[in-house]
User: Which sequence fits this backbone?
């Protein structure tokens, strides 16, 4: 059930690993998008704006959870590449202990602070109630977020990128059914959409757990390997916490930007919400490339095959460039049709909403190659074991988005908001590209006295 990424053509291995990962992320986006699509179609632009107004704070917290889980999986991938299976199992067990602790603390803290956060973000009064219940339920589902993302990351670190796809497919179908049930039958509004997401992700996580127990003999642990181990916890936190903070620091800039967009009115909030969901769908290939490069780099560092690191980054960057051209061309032609996936055709201001959403998406896809490099290079660095550098990249993105939100949106309005993310990606690349080359050179010095395998 495992896959070795330390031998063979980097391009072939990356493609073979990334495609199933991409399918899984598409399913994950599908069940995340269903909230927005069904809310926008059935409940209207005000409800859509309520969901969209929580996007940045959602990313701030849930992004941290996902980053921590992905970081915990990197030492697992490195020990897998090195053939040190006993320590690999210790990392898996201690990652579970740490995930429980993080989940409890974050669930309590975010639940208590939810209202304060929305007020601070200048959430418009006409959408505040819906926004509160949507994000509060999402935060109460943080344990389900940890359960799925940790187990899926561990499965991928062992070289199996296909299995999480199957469970996400089932979860996506379940999410659609629960969305319709809670919104149409039970009249729960946006709260029903968030509850459907949480329950669906919980099902995916439980399915991953059952599968791992039955199908991965390599993870069968002794009593000693299951014990809480301070040294293993430190190593896991050294990788996981910086990756989580990288997401959260990036999200701080998004929060300032969202607050600025909130000040423009609910119409613009709805347009950004629809455009952001379409962008997330279009950006899935880059998420898959990033996850692939984390595992690829982790295994090759563990096997001390350092020449393959640069080869992998170059091969994946070529794939990212090709997709960037395809995505931009597609949105030049079909951005309005994409916007209609999330908008009610009977909306009185539909023409304006479609135009604003299309402008947002076209601007972002015009800068997709810088985004490709952000994901590919950043996750490669993390896979090499230098996750602390990701925090600095996140700081660059935060500064760019914050500057746009505080300075340029008040001056130039919605158009400035559309350029916030491209500016953030370019700033991050200015740091990440030399950091990646420096990380590879540092590894060469570390292993200079050890012959490569």
Assistant:
């Amino acid at each position: 059930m495992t896959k070795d990424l330390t031998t063979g053509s980097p391009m072939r291995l990356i493609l073979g690993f990334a495609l199933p990962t991409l399918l899984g992320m598409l399913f994950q986006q599908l069940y995340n998008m269903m909230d927005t699509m069904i809310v926008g179609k059935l409940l209207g632009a005000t409800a859509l704006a309520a969901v969209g107004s929580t996007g940045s704070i959602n990313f701030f917290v849930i992004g941290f959870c996902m980053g921590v889980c992905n970081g915990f999986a990197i030492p697992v991938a490195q020990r897998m590449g090195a053939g040190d299976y006993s320590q690999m199992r210790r990392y898996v067990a201690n990652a579970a202990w740490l995930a429980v602790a993080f989940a409890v603390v974050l669930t309590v803290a975010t639940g208590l602070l939810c209202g304060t956060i929305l007020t601070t973000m200048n959430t418009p009064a006409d959408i505040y109630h819906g926004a509160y219940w949507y994000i509060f339920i999402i935060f109460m589902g943080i344990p389900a977020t940890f359960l799925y993302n940790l187990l899926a990351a561990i499965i991928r670190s062992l070289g199996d990128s296909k299995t999480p796809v199957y469970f996400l497919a089932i979860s996506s179908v379940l999410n659609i059914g629960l969305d319709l049930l809670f919104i149409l039958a039970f009249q729960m509004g946006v709260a029903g959409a968030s509850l459907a997401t949480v329950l669906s992700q919980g099902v995916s996580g439980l399915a991953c757990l059952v599968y791992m127990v039955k199908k991965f003999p390599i993870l069968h642990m002794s009593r000693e390997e299951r014990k809480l181990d301070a040294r293993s916890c430190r190593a896991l936190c050294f990788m996981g916490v910086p990756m989580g903070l990288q997401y959260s620091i990036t999200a701080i800039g998004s929060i300032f930007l969202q607050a600025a967009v909130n000040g423009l009115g609910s119409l613009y909030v709805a347009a950004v919400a629809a455009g952001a969901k379409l962008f997330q769908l279009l950006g899935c290939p880059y998420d898959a490339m990033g996850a692939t490069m984390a595992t690829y780099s982790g295994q090759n560092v563990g096997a001390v095959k350092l020449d393959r690191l640069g080869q992998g980054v170059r091969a994946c960057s070529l794939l990212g460039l090709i997709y960037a051209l395809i995505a931009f061309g597609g949105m030049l032609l079909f951005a309005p049709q994409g916007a209609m996936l999330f908008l009610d055709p009977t909306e009185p201001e539909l023409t304006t909403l479609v135009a604003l959403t299309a402008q947002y998406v076209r601007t972002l896809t015009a800068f997709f190659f810088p985004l490709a490099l952000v994901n590919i290079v950043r996750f490669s660095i993390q896979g090499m074991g230098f996750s602390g550098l990701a925090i600095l990249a996140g700081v660059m993105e935060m500064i760019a988005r914050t500057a746009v939100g505080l300075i340029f949106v008040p001056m130039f309005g919605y158009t400035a908001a559309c350029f916030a993310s491209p500016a953030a990606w370019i700033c991050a690349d200015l740091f990440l590209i030399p950091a990646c080359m420096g990380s590879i050179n540092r590894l060469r010095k570390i292993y200079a006295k050890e012959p490569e395998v």
About this structure: The mean pLDDT is 87. The longest helix spans residues 85-120. The chain has 18 helices and no strands.
